[in-house]
Structures are given as C-alpha cells and as structure tokens.
Design goal:
Elements: E1 23-30, H1 38-46, H2 48-54, E2 59-64, E3 71-76, E4 81-85, H3 91-103
Parallel strand pairs: 1-2
Antiparallel strand pairs: 1-3, 3-4
Helix pairs in contact: 1-3
Length: 142
C-alpha cells in the first residue's frame, strides 16, 4: 500500500492567523537649520534606513519643515493620526518614540472603569479581608 502526500495549503481567513500592523505610515518632519532638530537629523542619517528596512509594511515619509520643531506623525488604518514632538531629543529617544507610534493601535486611550479590573461572579475563597485579621497587635507593656 502506497501513501500519497496531501497537497493542502493553508487558506487565509480574513486576517486570522496573521498579524496586521495598525500603523500604515510614519511621517518624519524636521528642520535643517534649528538646533531642536539636531537629534532628528542624526536619526534620519543613521537609524532611519535600518528602521525602514526592518519594517517594510510601514511607509516612511521624510519632509523638511523650516523653522518648526521636529515631529513624528503616525497614520493608522482606521484613519486616525497621532503626532509626537521630538524637539531636543537624542537619536535613541527618537527611535523609542517611532517604536511607540509603530506599536500603537490608532485608537484613543480609554480608561478602564470600575475599581476591580478582574470581575468574577464567585466570591473569593479567602473571604473579605479586614484589617482586624492576622497577627495580634504588639503589646507595649514595659
């Protein structure tokens, strides 16, 4: 009896099983003249080519903005934009800010409501804590 290999390939199911990065474009705005763009100019020359090569799914736009502070602006697939001012920051700090925008979802920051983050229908097995539980209070008899 001979065995025949299966020729099954995986089919994509609307993004299930793949990671779709939410950031679709990063804009780097800088000024050639101003001192607040010194770190951004160094970043654009040294770190940006490696950053762009390691993230081919993100469009990178670099444009000068004379007489303005440097800004990184992220455009997301849901249509929103977020900007981070990077004036007077060093290269590694600008790289961290670009990574923050790269990893963002594009949604507004939401506050988690309620005192308890984890909710349960069952009461805890230890019961409700009280400051009167536990070790006896130290005596100060001298």
């Amino acid at each position: 009896m001979t065995l025949k290999a299966l020729q099954a390939t995986s089919t994509s199911r609307n993004g299930v099983g793949t990671f779709i990065r939410q950031c679709k474009r990063l804009d780097f705005h800088y000024c050639d003249w101003a001192g607040s763009s010194r770190g951004m100019n160094q970043f654009l020359q040294s770190h940006l080519p490696r950053f762009a090569a390691s993230h081919p799914s993100i469009e990178i736009h670099v444009s000068p903005r004379p007489h303005r502070h440097p800004v990184i602006r992220g455009h997301f697939i849901n249509g929103s934009q977020h900007s981070i001012c990077v004036r007077n920051l060093e290269m590694k700090d600008i790289l961290r800010k670009a990574e923050i925008l790269r990893d963002m979802s594009g949604e507004k920051a939401r506050r988690i409501r309620g005192g308890r983050v984890v909710g349960s229908l069952n009461e805890g097995t230890r019961g409700i804590w009280s400051p009167f539980h536990g070790a006896k209070a130290p005596s100060f008899a001298g």
